[in-house]
Structure formats: structure tokens, C-alpha cells
User: Which sequence fits this backbone?
């Protein structure tokens, strides 16, 4: 049983999507619990990929092919997930802020969040503060994650938080911010709940706040 | 009000208690490098103080403690932007933190051009007040100009006559010299005969300013001067400067004023050197990136910094030099080049202008790498430009030991046959001996990455090799190699190890991929499959080895001999438009002809970008056309 799990995990970490898919089929045929594959192989693999990225061992292409391997095998597992195992950890709304069209960092966070078992609603790029607030109202997510790559667009995060405050929504959602020009100081200053220095830290921060 | 003294400049300024050392430096006019514009994130604004004086400032902030401040025995290191002044203190600015003051090494290339200036001068005999019929002096001047030049439509503004009316016996019959602009507007009337005509070509870069004093009749450069852009005190890059303007609109006036003052200073120096009178400087042409052009014109540049990156003003401008504060002939004109987008400015247009009509033959690329990477592709007679967010790594910024291209900067790294790392630094013009290294400039970063990949210390994926592989590789807490020591503290000028870190390499990869992906998309959109020639503009190109940029895949594969540096092409183009009216018209028509491709938000960018992060001529894992399974 555990060698199936280990094999899937290893293939996903190395980004071997065909091998990973084959290993998943074998594991399911051998009667391995789908929930276990999800948790101990896929989620665990993406956590390691995240660590490797954080430490500098992996870079974007390695991270991306691993994430692709994961998205490849999820449809194989999904039909077998039942009951509790099918439940997502929680919902996150994500987007790049107004005036900013950078989506690579935001996409990586989205994939890492999905890999960690979250349901992610991606609002895309150039998202106005009002749109974020609208999504928080409509989706009632646990997390609101905002990304900015330009110093000048960071201010839009502050406006979003102000609007959440004004709408009485601020206490209902955990706000995480990230992007190259940001700092912990800025996150504190605008009243965000956490600063995700990279995708891995972001997922970790969300996990911590679930407990 | 505590006093702060800065060394080695020995400038003292009074500040309010609690103001930062960086603000104090601005007030004192001391240039301290500030890559992030004072947010405490880049670590470039290092200053030191005697440990005995450490109570005259606040204790190190969290940001400083988390960052990597060097430890000194009797010196206390601080980030100027985090260091709040509480009492009288003396701060030293180490050489690696000094904002650039010096001129670029290769300020211009001489491009021969026929002199056909826009300003012309004619000597005229003006009638006295008693000559019939009785007319105002202005009418008599206009008449004389029409009579002498044979032209019927001549414009003469009150301001020009106002200037002339301050001359002694201006109303008498006399010979005067009238200066005409585009043959129809009188911009100056001066007593006596003056034949020579002078002009300025001004190139405003984010980092440095270059001004050329030119003889308009000869089409020749009389003198040139360069200086650091004084706006550096508001941040090294344009975004930092925009952030200041966003916070306080008064910063716009301060930046405009500082720029004009610097240009006037350089012009004054050249006039003193050549004996040219400022009154004989009757035309000027200015090029810069869009932010610099906006600031010079007093236009808020903020919209340039965020999507959809549109300029507030885009057309070419013929302004009165005096209205912008330029200390040349009062009614002289200043032509500011047109801009095409938030990033494609007059500087790029001027660089294209220098390429002449040959540029359209075949498929050619013009690349200008600064904080941003601008690329122009000429293919089948069409011109398309784009701008790539290369990040400032190629200027040596956001690199742990990064410095600008200045004496002591490592510009080339290689691995000798014994496996030892060797390096060359930019020489100090005043000295024979090669200076000891102070850090890596942009070309040094590229050169070291290319050399270290060749020697196997960095993989093409951009990971540092196992720490055991080479003594220069140093392991971090995780056991993985964290950095590569290029020069140990004992051999550096800074007393610190000069290293290339894993994070630095990642930055190079992001910048490289951004530029290369932009080039690939441009080529795709224009239907170009191969490149005939690559022109590298700006200081970046001057110091680069073409092999190195091919090795890491910064540009598509071409024979090495087809890559050439064209130096400060922006300044060269500005001179062409100053010397020759057809060239100025060509600049205007180029602006209409060139289209701009916006990369952000393109669906194909993502995959290309990921694939091209690899440091190889072509990606090992080619980009996938579609996403997902």
C-alpha cells in the first residue's frame, strides 16, 4: 500500500505526469483509499515541492511541471473520493490587484493552494477592490489572497481592506497579501492578516489559520 | 534640531528628530543609493556610524535585523531608510552605497550628418524711428526680416521684442541678428552680427544625464558632460520615484527642478569651457524614458507605473526652453521626443533613428536593457516595440553584492584551467592599477552566471551545484549551496565577501526569461523566424560579451558577430534630430509608424516565461502551447 503512495508522491515531485497517472491507476486497482492518495501522496508531494522552491532547489519550471503532474492525476482520484475525503479544506478567493497584470506568481499560489486541498476561486488580474469585496460577499471564503508586483498598485490592497471594513466583512475572512515589492511591514500597515513571502509560506499561513 | 554630518562629502544638515538618515541625505544633497526608494527591502542604502554614537539613532528595526547587515567591530551598520536621527551624529557612506555621480564610460558615437538645423540666423538692417512710414519697432524688425529673407509670413512675439527692448539704444537704426525657427518664427533679436548657432542634445536617463553642446552650422559636438541623475535621491528606479510623487505631488516639482538644475549646471560648465554664450544656444532636443520626459515637462508620471501603462502625454513637444527653466537663449525651443507607451519613450525612438533606413532591411532587433528591457523588432518594413519587466538585476540592483557600472565593479568573471575563479573590474580612470572589487555590475552578473554554468557551478536550471564541488560554493543552513564566493573579504574593497547567491541567480533567470519571452512573442506576432542582426543600446551593451548573452539564452541564436553594441544611442539620436530637420521629422514619422505590443495579459506569455527561465540558448523543456493535460 505505502509503496504505491510513495511512488505517486515521488513522480509528482519530479513532475512525471504519465508515470504519476499510471501509479495512481495501479494504486486504485490495488484498492488504495483515494482520500489517502490525495492526502499522503498529492498534498504531501506539493508540500515538498513548495519547500524545495522556498529553499531555492526548485525554480518555476520544476514547480510548474510538478503542479501539472498533480492536476493530471486529480481527475483520476476524484470519482473515488467520497464523504469526508471529498470535502475541501476551505475556500480561497485569489487575484492580482487593480492596475497589475502579473499573473505568474498568483497562478503559482493558486496551484499550490489547490495542491494543498483548498478550493480556489481565481478572479484573475487587474481586480478592482470592489470586485474582491463582491467575491467575498458571494463566495464567503475563508481566505482572501491578493497579489501585487508593482509598488504603485500595492495601495489597492489597502483600499480593498478598507472596503471590507466598511462592509463589515473584515472579520469574516482571513486576508493574505504577497508579491515581490511587499514586506511584512506593509502587510501590518494595511491590516492584512499575513504576508506570504512565497507560495509555500502562503499555504503554510493558511494551514496554520485553519487549526 | 539634531545635526547630521555625512562623510566623505563632509556635508552637514539639520533635521527634525525622528527623520531618517535617507531623508537627511536628500536634504544635504548627499547621494545615497536607494534601490527600493526607502522601503527597507533592498539593503542598498547602507551607512555606518561609530559604535560610540549608536544612541544618537534609533535601535535597528525588525527589517534590519531580519536582513543581512554586516557586522563591524567598532562601526555600526545601518540602513539609511530605517535609521532615525535622534541626536547629533556623523554617518559615513561606504562606496558601494554611493549614488552614481560619474559619467558613463562611452558617452557617444559620432554619426556624420548634414547640418540642416531648424534655427537659422540672418543679419538685418532695422530702420530708425524717423524712417517713414512711422511704425512700431516690432513692425520695423519684421519688415527687415521679410525684406532680407524674402519670406512673406513671419511671426514675431511680444516676448522676443520685450527681451530686445532691454538692450541699450534698442530703438535706433542698427544692424541686428534675427534668429528664426523653422524659417517663420523670430525667436531672438540681438544687436550686432552673430553668425554661429549652438544647440543642446540632452539625454535624460534614470541613472545619468548626458548633455552635448553642439555647433549647429558644423554639425559637430563642441563638448559633452555627464552627471548622475539628481533624482536618484528619490529612489534608484522610476517606480520608486513615482511612489514619492504618489505620496506627495510636491515631489514632482522637486524632481523636475533638480533635473533642470543639473542640465543647467552641465551646460554652464561647457559654455565656460568653450566660450559659447548661453544666448547663442537657440535650440535643444531632449530624449528620455517616458517617466523622465513626463517629469521634465512637469506632467505627473503616475499612470505610467500601473496597468494599462499609458502615458499622460505622448506627442512630440516644441516648448519654449525658458518656460521649463533651461538657462539658454530665452525663447529657444526645446524639442521633446514623442513617446509611444508607458515604457517606450523618446530614448528608444532616438535609438531607432540612429539605425537609419537599413534597419528595416531583413529582420533586426534593437534591445535596450535597463531596469526594464525595451525591444524593437524591424521585420519586413514593419516596426514593433515591446517592453519587458526584466527587473533591475541587469543594472546590478537587487543583487546581493550588486553595484552600478563604476570603477571597482566586477565586469567579467571566468574560470581558469585550474578551476580557480578569476575576475576583472572596471578600471579607475585616475589610476593604473585595477581596483579591488566592490561588487558586481550588470555585465558582471551575466558574465559570472555564464562562466559558472560553463564550469558546472550552476546548472542550466539555475540551481547552485553541490557544496562539495568547488571551494567557492558555500552551504547554507539547509546543507544546499547558498552562494558562490567570487572574491573573499580579504581581497575586496568593501571588507566583505563578494558573492553571487542562489537568489541572485533566480533574479537573473526571471529577468532573462522576461526579455527572451518578449522577443519570442514579438517575433511570433510579426512572423519572424530568425534574426539577422541584434543592436544592443545603452551602457548595458557596452560592457557585455555577446557570447555570454547567447550562452544564457538572453537573445535568440545569431552568429556572435551579428550582435553589436551601439552605445548611448539615445543621445546619438537626439543629436541627429538637433542637427537635421529631416531627422526630426523622421523621428515624428517613426513614432507614427511604430506599433507597441503589450505583453501583460497575453495568454502565451505564461508558458514561454516559465520555459525560458532556464539558462540555456534554447529551453531544455520547450514551452507547451496549451495549459493542462
Assistant:
Amino acid at each position: 500500500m505505502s509503496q504505491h503512495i510513495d511512488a505517486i508522491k515521488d513522480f509528482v515531485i519530479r513532475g512525471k505526469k504519465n508515470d504519476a497517472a499510471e501509479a495512481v491507476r495501479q494504486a486504485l486497482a490495488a484498492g488504495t483509499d483515494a482520500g489517502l492518495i490525495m492526502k499522503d501522496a498529492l498534498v504531501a508531494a506539493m508540500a515538498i515541492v513548495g519547500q524545495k522552491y522556498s529553499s531555492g532547489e526548485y525554480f518555476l519550471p520544476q514547480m510548474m511541471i510538478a503542479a501539472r503532474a498533480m492536476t493530471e492525476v486529480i481527475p483520476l482520484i476524484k470519482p473515488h473520493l467520497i464523504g469526508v475525503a471529498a470535502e475541501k479544506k476551505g475556500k480561497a478567493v485569489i487575484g492580482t490587484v487593480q492596475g497589475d497584470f502579473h499573473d505568474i506568481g498568483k497562478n503559482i499560489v493558486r496551484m499550490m493552494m489547490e495542491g494543498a486541498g483548498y478550493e480556489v476561486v481565481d478572479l484573475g488580474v487587474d481586480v478592482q477592490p470592489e470586485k474582491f469585496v463582491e467575491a467575498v460577499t458571494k463566495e464567503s471564503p475563508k481566505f482572501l489572497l491578493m497579489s501585487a508586483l508593482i509598488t504603485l498598485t500595492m495601495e489597492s490592497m489597502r483600499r480593498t481592506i478598507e472596503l471590507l471594513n466598511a462592509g463589515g466583512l473584515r472579520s469574516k475572512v482571513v486576508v493574505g497579501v504577497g508579491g515581490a515589492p511587499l514586506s511584512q511591514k506593509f502587510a501590518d500597515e494595511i491590516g492584512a492578516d499575513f504576508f506570504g513571502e512565497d507560495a509555500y509560506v502562503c499555504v503554510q499561513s493558511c494551514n496554520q489559520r485553519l487549526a | 534640531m539634531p545635526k547630521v554630518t555625512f562623510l566623505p562629502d563632509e556635508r552637514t544638515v539639520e533635521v527634525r528628530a525622528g527623520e531618517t538618515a535617507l531623508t537627511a541625505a536628500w536634504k544635504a544633497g548627499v547621494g545615497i543609493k536607494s534601490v527600493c526608494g526607502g522601503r527597507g527591502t533592498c539593503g542598498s542604502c547602507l551607512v555606518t556610524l561609530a559604535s560610540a554614537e549608536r544612541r544618537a539613532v534609533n535601535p535597528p528595526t525588525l527589517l534590519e535585523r531580519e536582513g543581512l547587515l554586516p557586522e563591524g567591530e567598532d562601526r555600526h551598520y545601518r540602513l539609511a531608510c530605517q535609521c532615525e536621527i535622534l541626536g547629533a551624529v556623523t554617518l559615513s557612506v561606504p562606496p558601494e552605497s554611493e549614488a552614481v555621480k560619474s559619467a558613463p564610460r562611452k558617452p557617444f558615437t559620432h554619426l556624420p550628418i548634414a547640418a540642416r538645423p531648424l534655427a537659422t540666423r540672418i543679419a538685418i538692417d532695422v530702420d530708425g524711428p524717423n524712417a517713414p512710414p512711422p511704425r512700431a519697432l516690432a513692425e520695423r524688425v519684421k519688415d527687415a526680416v521679410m525684406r532680407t529673407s524674402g519670406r512673406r509670413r513671419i511671426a514675431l512675439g511680444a516676448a522676443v521684442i520685450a527681451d530686445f527692448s532691454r538692450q541699450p539704444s534698442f530703438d535706433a537704426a542698427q544692424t541686428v541678428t534675427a534668429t528664426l525657427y523653422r524659417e517663420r518664427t523670430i525667436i531672438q533679436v540681438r544687436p550686432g552680427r552673430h553668425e554661429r548657432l549652438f544647440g543642446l542634445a540632452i539625454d535624460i536617463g534614470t541613472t545619468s544625464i548626458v548633455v552635448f553642446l553642439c555647433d549647429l552650422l558644423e554639425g559637430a559636438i563642441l563638448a559633452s558632460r555627464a552627471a548622475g541623475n539628481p533624482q536618484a535621491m528619490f529612489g534608484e528606479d522610476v517606480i520608486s520615484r513615482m511612489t514619492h510623487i504618489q505620496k506627495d505631488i510636491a515631489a514632482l516639482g522637486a524632481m523636475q527642478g533638480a533635473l533642470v538644475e543639473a542640465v543647467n549646471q552641465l551646460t554652464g560648465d561647457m559654455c565656460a569651457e568653450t566660450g559659447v554664450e548661453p544666448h547663442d544656444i537657440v535650440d535643444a532636443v531632449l530624449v528620455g524614458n517616458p517617466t523622465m520626459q513626463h517629469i521634465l515637462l512637469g506632467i505627473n508620471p503616475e499612470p505610467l507605473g500601473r496597468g494599462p501603462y499609458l502615458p499622460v502625454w505622448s506627442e512630440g513637444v516644441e516648448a519654449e526652453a525658458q518656460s521649463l527653466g533651461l538657462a539658454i537663449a530665452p525663447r529657444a525651443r526645446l524639442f521633446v521626443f514623442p513617446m509611444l507607451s508607458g515604457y517606450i519613450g523618446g530614448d528608444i525612438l532616438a535609438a531607432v533613428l540612429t539605425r537609419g533606413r537599413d534597419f528595416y532591411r531583413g529582420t533586426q532587433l534593437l534591445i535596450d536593457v535597463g531596469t526594464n528591457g525595451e525591444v524593437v523588432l524591424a521585420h519586413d518594413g514593419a516596426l514593433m516595440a515591446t517592453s519587458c519587466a526584466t527587473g533591475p538585476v541587469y543594472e546590478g540592483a537587487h543583487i546581493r553584492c550588486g553595484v552600478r557600472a563604476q570603477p571597482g565593479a566586477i565586469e567579467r568573471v571566468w574560470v581558469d584551467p585550474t578551476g580557480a575563479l578569476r575576475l576583472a573590474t572596471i578600471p579607475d580612470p585616475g589610476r593604473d592599477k585595477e581596483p579591488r572589487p566592490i561588487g558586481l555590475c550588470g555585465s558582471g552578473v551575466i558574465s559570472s552566471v555564464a562562466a559558472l554554468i560553463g564550469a558546472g557551478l550552476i546548472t542550466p536550471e539555475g540551481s547552485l551545484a553541490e557544496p562539495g564541488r568547488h571551494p567557492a560554493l558555500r552551504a547554507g543552513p539547509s546543507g544546499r549551496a547558498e552562494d558562490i564566493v567570487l572574491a573573499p573579504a580579504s581581497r575586496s574593497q568593501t571588507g566583505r565577501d563578494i558573492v553571487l547567491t542562489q537568489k541572485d541567480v533566480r533574479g537573473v533567470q526571471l529577468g532573462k526569461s522576461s526579455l527572451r519571452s518578449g522577443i519570442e512573442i514579438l517575433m511570433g506576432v510579426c512572423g519572424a523566424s530568425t534574426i539577422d542582426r541584434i543592436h544592443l543600446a545603452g551602457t548595458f551593451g557596452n560592457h557585455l560579451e555577446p557570447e555570454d548573452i547567447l550562452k544564457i539564452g538572453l537573445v535568440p541564436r545569431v552568429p556572435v558577430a551579428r550582435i553589436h553594441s551601439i552605445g548611448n544611442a539615445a543621445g546619438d539620436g537626439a543629436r541627429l534630430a538637433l542637427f537635421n530637420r529631416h531627422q526630426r521629422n523622421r523621428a515624428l514619422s517613426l513614432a507614427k509608424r511604430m506599433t507597441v505590443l503589450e505583453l501583460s495579459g497575453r495568454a502565451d506569455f505564461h508558458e514561454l516565461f516559465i520555459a525560458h527561465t532556464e539558462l540555456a540558448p534554447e529551453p531544455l523543456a520547450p514551452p507547451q502551447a496549451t495549459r493542462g493535460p
